[in-house]
């Protein structure tokens, strides 16, 4: 039984290599830092949604103007 073609033994070997490279303390601090970053992101997103002022409908203004045709000067060929 495997995960997408990877057996459990291959996953264990990869996990062992990662632990050997980074050490358990560094992996633990990396995990907690990542968790804190996600929590901070979610908190800021919630705050932004609560702070957003309600959108007010603006009354439009009508601008009256008259269109006129501008004639181009004659060309000299």
TrEMBL record:
What keywords are annotated for this sequence in UniProt? Cell membrane, Membrane, Protein transport, Translocation, Transmembrane, Transmembrane helix, Transport
> Any idea which GO molecular function terms this record carries?
protein transmembrane transporter activity
Membrane-crossing residue ranges in chain numbering? 6-24
- Which InterPro entries does the entry mention? TatA/B/E, TatA/E
**Region span, Disordered:** 45-77
**A Pfam family recorded for this sequence:** TatA_B_E
Query: What is one GO biological process annotated to this record?
Result: protein transport by the Tat complex
Q: Where is the composition biased (Basic and acidic residues)?
A: 45-59, 66-77
Q: Which family does it belong to?
A: Belongs to the TatA/E family.
What exactly does this protein do? Part of the twin-arginine translocation (Tat) system that transports large folded proteins containing a characteristic twin-arginine motif in their signal peptide across membranes. TatA could form the protein-conducting channel of the Tat system.
- HAMAP family named in the record: TatA_E
Protein name from the UniProt record: Sec-independent protein translocase protein TatA
Q: What is the lineage of its organism?
A: Bacteria, Pseudomonadati, Pseudomonadota, Gammaproteobacteria, Pseudomonadales
